[in-house]
Design a protein that fits this description.
The chain is α/β, with parallel strands linked by helices. Helices cover about 45% and strands about 15% of the residues. The strands form two sheets. A four-stranded parallel beta sheet has the order 2-1-3-4, sandwiched between helices. A four-stranded parallel beta sheet has the order 6-5-7-8, sandwiched between helices. The mean pLDDT is about 95.
Length: about 350
Amino acid sequence: MPDLFLPEADSSGARVGVLLLNLGTPQAPTAQAVRPYLREFLSDQRVVELPRFLWQCLLRGIILPIRGRKSAHAYQTIWQADGSPLLTGTIKLTQALSQRFSEDIITAYAMTYGQPSVRQVMQHMKQQGADRILVIPLYPQYAASSSGAALDQVWRVLLKQRAQMAVRSITTFADDAGYIHALAEHIRQYWQQHGQGQHLLISFHGIPEAQRQQGDPYVSQCQSTTRLLTEALQLSPSQYTLAFQSRFGPAKWVGPSTQDLLQQLPQQGIRTLDVVCPGFVTDCLETLEEINIRGKQDFLAHGGQQLNYIPCLNDNHEWVDALQHLVNNQLQGWTPERS
């Protein structure tokens, strides 16, 4: 199991924990490692809302053998010397946040799927004396298939605890002023260093249209983030486009599609394009491979001249400031007066 950056056991009394949750990653960029990770991920009925028996037959018989190989190849294109970018990025963010707090607050991370698991990390935190934890899924915009699925893992652990930990959670920070400020400053700094393209494509992970129709607030929160971000950047409507990426399967997904726009924008005279993905705080397969490799190739193949991918916030200083502020607000009453 990866290093959790947890302190040694402390018997001096009750402590408070802050638990950051991210999606997860295979342990290696191989088909053998990717398949069990995908099986766990795609077996979650929060992620794929189809009848379980039918879906498991399709998943195990067709999807995993094919997608396992394709995903492994995709991971190979972004894998770093120290491992998966999502894992290393989450570790760096956790370290940066933990340095903002005293030892009475235990800061850790876990993955919804794969390692380190929520169960393992919560058990470890409890052994270190944490009887209260604040849980933060690292998804600014709430979707049942992301934030909801992550929090489900926490509730499953609590169901089996005899002496249950007290839990608070942050389900969304889509319109948080600190998050928007960090994002806008990050984009401005990128433009200062690399120049600004003709157009900004703001790409979020998509969800099936059926989930939106059933009341999932995700799309409206993506729209809210986009509105606040473009206001902060002082962009006119003609200077940006909101889109959704990562379509999967035959069902209708929310749009417009990032993949379609990467092909269409050059035909509309957009030759230099900037792309930012505010729905991800840590760079991962969907940003580094889907956008910065395949998306860039697609844009250039259809007449574009340059696509600049603006990295995620990762452990950006302003973002750590915003996250610290979110934590301090939620820990009121659990710790000495915080600001």
